[in-house]
Design brief:
This protein is mostly helical. The protein has a domain at 1-107. It has 15 helices and no strands. It is rod-shaped and about 105 Å long. The protein starts with a helix and ends with a helix.
Length: 315
């Protein structure tokens, strides 16, 4: 029995030594493949190191395991990037997604962020053809995946929001535009400004559709929704005021007019609000207030009309 016990113990020792040597051999091969930029083979080797060495009690093996965990996301990223360069987008996406997942699993947040940034760029390129061909639904499906991977890819976010708006999904589009507009920092300034421009464009388009249907309550509801998300939304204040004027709810225009004017940062937009307010006062036969409001129309397309109205009301 004693001899058998010793034999089994020796066998276990041999197995442990073999496992240790195998892990180290795979680690060395993985390092060699990584140095040679053979990322696919390196990934296989490092995965074997992790699988075979994870439960080891040997410090050298465990060091190999921890280093393999660090390098594995880099390997998948390398495979994905190479595939993207050849326009093999499905392969690129699969490997970059794997890189991000492995990095997150092993707590390597910087590697996860980098993999997701590259992944988003691949989705951006992949969806570009559909976007340029105005295939909005197809482009949106691709861009949405990229946006989920990296919301700070503001160019792709703008394209995604445009797709939604062109598909008639105004609320979804504006939500993405607003996220871009809220980005802080010099590198986001250009796209933030573009987001605000496109919000105005698509909001005005939406207003035009509702006006054509004489749906002024729809315009007011849309404005209220925008203001609920952003009480400082100057455009929403302006279009809501104009909708109340179209409904001939002059009392409501007078109630909201000064606040709507104060919200405007552009002099022409502020003048438009005062022109609307002046029209409401005039309709209510409140001449002094109408004249006062119309005199504040100093920029934009309504200056001459305001001057003419002031002259007539002053007679």
């Amino acid at each position: 029995m004693k001899k058998l016990f010793l034999t089994v113990a020796a066998l276990f020792a041999v197995c442990a030594l073999w496992a240790q040597d195998n892990v180290i051999a795979n680690y060395n091969k993985g390092a060699e493949m990584l140095q040679a930029k053979n990322y696919a083979e390196a990934a296989k080797c490092f995965q074997l190191v992790i699988d075979e060495g994870i439960n080891s009690e040997d410090s050298k093996v465990l060091n190999c395991v921890e280093t393999a965990k660090k390098y594995l996301p880099t390997c998948y990223q390398g495979v994905g990037t190479a595939a993207a360069a050849k326009a093999n987008y499905d392969e690129a996406i699969a490997n970059l997604t794997k890189a991000a997942e492995v990095a997150e699993l092993y707590g390597n947040l910087s590697a996860m962020k980098k993999a997701n940034m590259i992944l988003a760029r691949v989705y951006q390129v992949q969806g570009g053809t559909a976007f340029n061909n105005k295939e909005w639904a197809a482009a949106a499906e691709i861009f949405a995946k990229g946006y989920a991977a990296d919301p700070k890819n503001t160019q792709m976010a703008l394209w995604l929001a445009q797709c939604y708006c062109e598909m008639g999904e105004y609320d979804k589009g504006v939500e993405v535009f607003e996220a871009v507009a809220a980005m802080q920092g010099p590198k986001f300034e250009e796209h933030a400004a573009e987001a605000n421009r496109l919000i105005a464009l698509y909001t005005n388009n939406e207003v035009a559709k509702l006006q054509a249907a004489n749906d002024y309550d729809g315009i007011i509801a849309m404005s209220d929704k925008l203001l609920a998300k952003n009480p400082a939304n100057a455009l929403a204040e302006k279009i809501r005021l104009q909708a109340y004027l179209s409904k001939k709810d002059y009392a409501k225009v007078i109630e909201l007019g000064e606040a709507a004017a104060a919200a405007q940062t552009d002099e022409a937009e502020k003048s438009d609000v005062y022109f609307t307010l002046g029209a409401a006062y005039n309709a209510k036969e409140m001449k002094p207030q109408a004249i006062e409001a119309l005199k504040k129309v100093v920029a934009g397309d309504n200056v001459e009309a305001a001057k003419k109205s002031v002259a007539e009301l002053s007679k």
